[in-house]
From TrEMBL:
Polar residues compositional bias, start-end: 19-35
Pfam families assigned: DNA_ligase_A_C, DNA_ligase_A_M, DNA_ligase_A_N
Any GO BP: lagging strand elongation
Region (Disordered): 1-71, 680-713
UniProt keyword Acyltransferase, yes or no: no
Catalytic function, reaction form: ATP + (deoxyribonucleotide)n-3'-hydroxyl + 5'-phospho-(deoxyribonucleotide)m = (deoxyribonucleotide)n+m + AMP + diphosphate
Localization terms from the record: Nucleus
Protein name per the record: DNA ligase
Biased composition (Low complexity): 55-70
Species of provenance: Medicago truncatula (Barrel medic)
Family named by the database record: Belongs to the ATP-dependent DNA ligase family.
Keyword Secreted: no
Length: 713
DNA sequence: CGTGACTGCCC
DNA sequence: ATTCTGC
DNA sequence: GCAGAATGGGCAGTCACG
């Protein structure tokens, strides 16, 4: 594809006033210039360059119209030292601001830009590491916001703080900020595939407005203000806050402001690399603190420790503060699993057959459990009786499930004073004693639900216990955890039922169990070891999952026609990113939209398909294309080819038109998790899967006709 | 007060 | 969620 | 095999606007 291009707006002069808005109290606990026995190499006195942010002592800001643009050149030259191997890097070599002064946002933006250009994760991690060390050295109080911005968040997920700024809002703001129409901005966006690049190319702040240089804390605090804004006129206010940032930004700052707002950093650097860099930065910064004896490679070890700490306590406020006060080597002690704070859930890896499970977990005692189709939940019950429920991504869901709160409180056994339960919450019809589809669960109200007003009942299916009566069980084997699990709760039909499980290493028996799970409206099975390697490993993909649609020969497959496409974003800029697909209704001779798809393509496939279909453009949808007005693709195609798509489910859709009237009077059918399997050059569009067949497939889904799913042996 | 666009979060 | 890709 | 970044349907909640 293409190399990265930069597109930098001309520099503007920035004046130097540090509007210091202190973030929050957490900084108080930060250790000051970390234990640096080595006197800093005279950080500022020697700085040979007059830099934009360095008004030195004179608070009487002179309208220094002097060489501000050359200054940025100098800054960039200097900052390229970040590329040095950490062992050769001098933590005071790149900062152009004084010790104790707020870290300029430009520093982070330029670092992002450098990271983006690197290829290897090691090289990227090194830059990150050097950035963190620089901040630790000059302004440790800024480390927390720097880490948050690096990780593309503004708060731990369970705090529910969201900016509520999306593409549409950014488009609107950009249009206003540079006096263009929204339509204009949208076009530009479609071309570049990245609103950050649009912002950067827009030469914002045309007027030579005297504005203060952005600092990390300014940006971070403004993000928080944006997040907290709500109610009438809140959109306008958010809009203005964003504009104020954009107008104060220079160089590549607009690019990263926008990307941060949209949570799309796109520099190939995310959580795991950051954690690794954090660990390494700590090792270099804590120069006097020797690693514990017996450690061969402190850097790797520190990385492990930080990742481990984060996986059981995913909260940077706590991790950073613990790291700065007690050092990285104590992190395993200072950042423990904490009841009330969610742990990252253990995950599973996809497999495609029972035999694959038996192979991978050879020589270990196996347990299979039904894979229920609901929401993952981690339920924390504390000594004082308070309960919190967290989602798979650590969002606090307690307010959505007051009935679950009641159920676990009621069904825990007497000897249980506190626990953390890992489970699946599933929509459930108690009268018919039947699991209901995910789509039913998703209609449940989410905020401040009252037990008396619940529309969708749920049943909890526990499968693991991470904590019991003040004791962490993470390090115990599954066998032990299960023993505790079963000993700690009573079952109550329709409220709490242990996940259906089978302990077996017998392929035939397991195959039967798999079929049974599907009959019971489940998605398939999860495989785990009971003894060997069976501790609970947060965020690790050490379980296996087998779903019917993963299996090569089984699962629903459809032959569909691409009739439109959407421009790609990010690394897909310049090609289509996804395609609008249709089935064929033989009776009406219509192509009816059924879903989009944008995954399953090799890069090459995507380029070729894009090139091929671009020759087939039509200005308007044909009369025989049945689609909703709502989501029109960027371009329409003549129906010309057939693609095979695999799905996990068919669903009734509010928008898509496939088989409309056949299973629902005015709604069509769509696809859950559609992905391209292969092209079908052997088929003509009219040979695509028919609406009739799609209705059949929908009706064949077990949970749509549960009465017919008689037990079979 | 109803509707539709937008956003975040489930999968 | 699924899938692909570079390291 | 890891980590990151592309991409899917669809729901409730929020806000702007008529």
């Amino acid at each position: 594809m293409s190399g990265a291009k930069k597109n930098q707006p001309p520099l503007k002069k920035t004046k130097t006033h540090h509007l210091q808005s202190t973030p929050s109290k957490s900084i108080r606990t930060f250790f000051q210039p970390l234990n640096s026995p080595i006197p800093p190499k005279n950080p500022d006195t020697e700085s040979p360059i007059k830099l934009p942010h360095q008004t030195s002592t004179s608070s009487t800001s002179s309208p220094s119209s002097s060489s501000s643009s050359t200054n940025v050149v100098e800054v960039k030259k200097r900052i390229s030292l970040l590329k040095k191997t950490p062992s050769e890097f001098d933590h005071s070599s790149v900062a152009w601001w004084k010790k104790g002064e707020p870290v300029p946002f430009l520093f982070l933006s330029l670092a992002f830009d450098m990271i983006k250009e690197e290829k290897g994760r090691n090289a990227m991690s090194d830059i990150g590491c050097n950035v963190l060390r620089t901040v630790m050295h000059t302004t440790p109080g800024d480390l927390l916001p720097v880490v948050y911005l690096f990780s593309n968040r503004i708060a731990p997920p369970y705090q529910g703080l969201e900016m509520g700024v999306g593409k549409a809002a950014v488009i609107k703001t950009l249009a206003e900020a540079c006096g263009r129409t929204e339509k204009d901005v949208k076009e530009h966006y479609k071309k570049l595939g990245d609103l950050g690049l649009v912002a950067q190319a827009s030469h914002l702040s045309q007027t030579l407005q005297k504005s203060d240089a952005l600092t990390i804390t300014k940006v971070f605090n403004t993000f928080h203000l944006i997040a907290k804004e709500s109610g009438k006129d809140s959109q306008k206010k958010k809009n203005n806050l964003i504009k104020s940032l954009l107008h104060a930004s220079t160089d590549c700052e607009p690019l990263y402001l926008v990307r941060l707002l949209l949570k799309e950093l796109r520099i190939g650097y995310a959580e795991q690399t950051l954690l690794s860099a954090l660990g390494q930065a700590a090792v270099y910064t804590e120069e006097h603190s020797k690693p514990p004896p017996g450690i061969q490679s402190p850097l790797e070890e520190a990385t492990k420790i930080v990742k481990q700490a984060y996986s059981v306590l995913p909260d940077y406020d706590k991790i950073i503060s613990a790291m700065l006060t007690d050092g990285v080597w104590l992190l395993a002690k200072t950042c423990n699993f904490t009841p009330g704070i969610p742990v990252e859930p253990m995950l599973s890896e996809k497999i495609t057959s029972v035999s694959e499970a038996l192979n991978k977990l050879r020589n270990a005692e196996l347990i299979c459990e039904y894979k229920y189709d609901g929401e993952r939940a981690q339920i924390h019950y504390k000594e004082n009786g308070s309960v919190e429920i967290y989602s798979r991504s650590s969002e606090r869901n307690t307010g959505k499930f007051p009935d679950v709160v009641a159920a676990v409180s009621r069904l825990k056994k007497k000897n249980v004073s506190s626990f953390v339960l890992d489970c699946e919450i599933v929509a459930y019809d108690r009268k018919k004693q039947r699991i209901l589809p995910m789509q039913v669960l998703s209609t449940r109200a989410r905020k401040d639900v009252a037990v008396s007003n619940i529309k969708v009942d749920v049943c909890v299916f526990p499968f693991d216990l991470l904590h019991l009566n003040g004791q962490a069980l993470l390090e115990e084997n599954l066998k032990i955890r299960r023993k505790h699990l079963y000993a700690s709760f009573e079952e109550e039909s329709g409220f709490l039922q242990f996940s259906m499980s089978l302990i077996s290493n017998d392929a035939k028996e397991i195959q039967k169990f798999l079929d049974k799970s599907v009959d019971a409206s489940c998605e398939g099975l999860i495989f785990k070891t009971l003894d060997k390697d069976s501790t609970y490993q947060p965020s690790e993909r050490n379980w296996l999952k087998l779903k019917k649609d993963y299996m090569k020969t089984i699962g629903d497959t459809l032959d569909l026609v691409p009739i439109g496409a959407f421009h790609g974003q990010g690394k897909r800029a310049g090609v289509y990113g996804s395609f609008l697909l249709a089935c064929y209704d033989v009776d009406t001779q219509e192509f009816q939209t059924i879903s989009k798809t944008g995954t399953g393509f090799k890069d090459e496939d995507l380029e070729e398909s894009s090139a091929r279909l671009r020759t087939n453009l039509i200005p308007k949808p044909k009369a025989c294309y049945k689609h909703a007005e709502k989501d029109k693709p960027d371009v329409w195609f003549e129906a010309s080819e057939v693609w095979e798509v695999k799905v996990s489910d068919l669903t009734i859709s509010p928008d898509y038109q496939a088989a409309v009237g056949k299973v629902h009077s005015n709604k069509g059918i769509s696809l859950r998790m559609p992905r391209l399997v292969r092209f079908r050059p052997d088929k003509a569009p009219e040979q695509a899967t028919s609406s009739e067949r799609i209705a059949e497939m929908y009706n064949a889904q077990k949970h749509n006709h549960p009465d017919k799913s008689k037990k079979k042996n």
